[in-house]
Design a protein that fits this description.
Elements lengths: L1 E6 L2 H6 L15 E11 L6 E7 L10 E2 L2 E3 L11 E2 L3 H8 L3 H19 L4 E3 L11 H12 L5 H7 L2 E4 L4 E7 L7 E10 L13 E7 L1 H9 L7 H10 L5 H5 L11 E5 L2 E8 L1
Parallel strand pairs: 2-10, 6-8
Antiparallel strand pairs: 1-13, 2-3, 2-5, 3-4, 3-11, 7-8, 9-10, 12-13
Helix pairs in contact: 2-3, 3-4, 6-7
Length: about 280
């Protein structure tokens, strides 16, 4: 394990009440399971990753550059969810969790990127190697209904005669929001290639900006103060910056263990201290 401190900066200090504007919580906030996905491409040159900037009014990670993702929905665990790729049992072993949680985490990863970017990691039920061809208007309508919780992801797949492609995801990291945060998530990070013929649009109310970034450029912009990153996002970008192609990104092999940073005070200022695997 390697210890690393992530300085907060003025905005993060204010959000956590370190400047005295917000009282410290009596006890840690409850934790919700979540998934996030690094969508990558290399067709226009070196490796790029798709990122969103969360709107400043968000209760969690406002104004931060993040990967698409979000919390699980209880309907993500439905047994009738059409599924292809490694079985739920295999994912439970990979994610080191129970089968119900594994099903929700994988389904949430694929559902969330569809909701937030329009990219759908699925295939026609009759042709496992093909890319789904949804009418743009149908896709927009389905995304809106999913966000509004009017339909479940399994229902969408069944009605469109599609199957979820769990084999298109690669597990990358496991981070737990620090106890000092007002909202907390137990988040699994995945990486996936954008399927041929699909292009993420970032049309989500949770973000005011979307863009393709080279991982090294995103890290440099963070270091220059031009964009803000949470510690897990920064570490994942640093790892992606080590490679230049999608295939290499999908085949990167890092030790994975739960990481939950702790709020500490250092000579340089308040920081989140993490024990990295």
């Amino acid at each position: 394990m390697a210890q690393r401190d992530f300085l907060l900066g003025p905005m993060r200090e204010a959000l956590l009440g370190i400047d005295g504007e917000r009282p410290e919580p009596a006890e840690p906030a409850p934790i919700k399971l979540a998934s996030t996905v690094m969508l990558v491409r290399d067709d226009e040159g070196p490796l790029e990753v798709f990122m969103l900037r969360r709107v400043s009014s968000m209760a969690f990670a406002p104004s931060m550059h993040v990967f698409p993702g979000g919390g699980v929905d209880r309907r993500d665990a439905e047994d009738e969810l059409p599924w292809a790729g490694p079985a739920v049992e295999e994912w439970a072993e990979t994610l080191e969790t129970d089968e119900a949680s594994a099903r929700m985490l994988v389904a949430a990863a694929i559902r969330e990127i569809f909701e937030e970017t329009g990219v759908l990691l699925a295939s026609p039920a009759s042709a496992a190697d093909e890319v789904p061809q949804l009418d743009p208007e149908v896709s927009t309508d389905l995304r809106a209904k999913l966000v509004a919780h009017e339909v479940g992801f399994g229902q969408v797949l069944l009605e469109q005669h599609l199957v979820l492609r769990s084999d298109l995801l690669r597990y990358r990291a496991h981070w737990i929001t620090p106890e000092a945060e007002p909202r907390r998530f137990d988040t699994r990070f995945f990486v996936a290639a954008v399927p041929q013929g699909q292009d993420p649009d970032g049309e989500t109310s949770e973000a005011d900006r979307s863009e393709w970034l080279r991982p090294d450029a995103a890290v440099a912009a963070f270091e220059d103060g031009d964009l803000m990153l949470m510690p897990p996002t920064l570490v994942c970008l640093e790892q992606l910056a080590e490679v230049s192609t999608v295939s290499a990104a999908l085949n990167q092999d890092f030790p994975i263990a739960p990481v939950m940073p702790q709020l500490v005070r250092t000579d340089a200022g308040p920081a989140m201290r993490a024990q990295l695997p």
